[in-house]
Amino acid sequence: MPTTNTEPNKLMKYVEDPLLELGGITELVKSFLAELRTKPFYFNLLIDQIYFIGVKSLPLIIITAISSGMVLALQYGLGLEKFGGKPYVPRLVASSILREMGPVFTGLMIAARVGAGIASEIGSMVVTQQIDAMRALGTSPIKRIVIPRILATVIALPILVGICAVIGNIGGLIIGHYELGLDPSFYFRRMMETSNIKDYVAGMGKSVFFALFISIPACYYGLNVKNGTKEVGLATTKAVVAGSLLIFVGDFFLSKLFWVIEKWL
Amino acid sequence: MAVIEINNFKKSFGTKQVHDGVNFTVNKGECLGLVGGSGAGKSVILRSLIGLEKADAGSILINSVDITHMSENDLVEIRKKVAYVFQNGALFDSMTVFDNLAYSLRAHTKMTYDQMDKKISDQLDEFGLLSAKKLYPSELSGGMQKRVGLARAIMMDPDVILYDEPTAGLDPYNTLKIQELILRLKAKKVTSILVTHDMPTGIAVCDRFVFLQNKVISENGTTQELLAQPNSLVNQFIKGQIV
Fold it and tell me: Are β-strands B160-164 and B57-62 bridged in parallel, bridged antiparallel, or unpaired?
């Protein structure tokens, strides 16, 4: 019976493949940390990546932020109207955007745009032997390719989350004023009363982890493309899926972590 | 004196064994032709000589230094002196020809921009590529890309050059151009290994051939010796009698 022989093998593969990937990612992180401490440091490559990841993502983040801020204000406003709860809209919108929606939506957008970009770019470089050429010319792909991309994502994402928070609240304010009839100065005051430094720290703190969740798998899948251009597409898909899933799953644990830290403080 | 020494080299990929005890040496200033059928593992040997692949067993010595188990960091010094010419050029497509050639100079030397510019311009002039200095790889023909790849590989004035099918897919004009460049480098006493299926080029530039067959070196001799023997593997390979 051929199936009896192949089924356990298939099952083994389902277990083996994720473990191998986990091992590979751990190796990559180890190399990243080891090479981060040694010279040379390619500062110009880091700046290029910050520009690509941060500045070039701004339009996307602005559109996402303003849309989500407006939708949140509208939903909260219409829902709470029946109970006379419209004055709570600024607080709810601000709190949601600062702690949850801002980091998660920005993270997902960056996972889609940047994670895919990193994986496909590195994957193409592997296929065309450019990564081998870097090594053959006595330079490290970890230093030239991986470190600038991971660091740039870690630097750019919290800034984008900060921008998302501001723009998202402006979106909420617009809807609060024009759709819900709230006074802009009232809205602004309530929003500022609600949001405190802890909210910003929690939101931006999460985004540092999200940046790692996006950039490390993207670099790993890109570097591990083996069988030609078809695998570049596969690596890109894997990078986006892994990044997005890690953001969703990680968000719960990170939210919990930051609440625990706040209680201590 | 042997500059390259491969002893009992063994390599497998998964369950597929590619090499099972490969042995050969290359002397200083010599050009060795490494030939064999497609999939025999010629490029794997070449890649292992610069540490891009790791041997499962055996040893690889470059200038009497064992590089078999060297780390990536330790291999940097070796890679400065052993150049690898990739089959398709492997040029960095986001960089101009100038930046491709400046890559290793920026990484390993403290040359000023003017010094680099002069060295690169001289090199490109010698390779007949001066007009391509500011072009991107996508703007070059296949032959030009291979020549730029060769020019980039030798920017650090290496002692050893490893050519991986440098004339594959080229027209006769570009093939001759590459041949001329290899002969020019050979005249400078650079030690080299040429992996090729293009036997006229191999015969024109190689002092000696080794034939890779059934996971081992089956034949090893000077070009004249092997061509003089009608039944030599190299002769049979040229006539298409073996793969």
Answer: unpaired
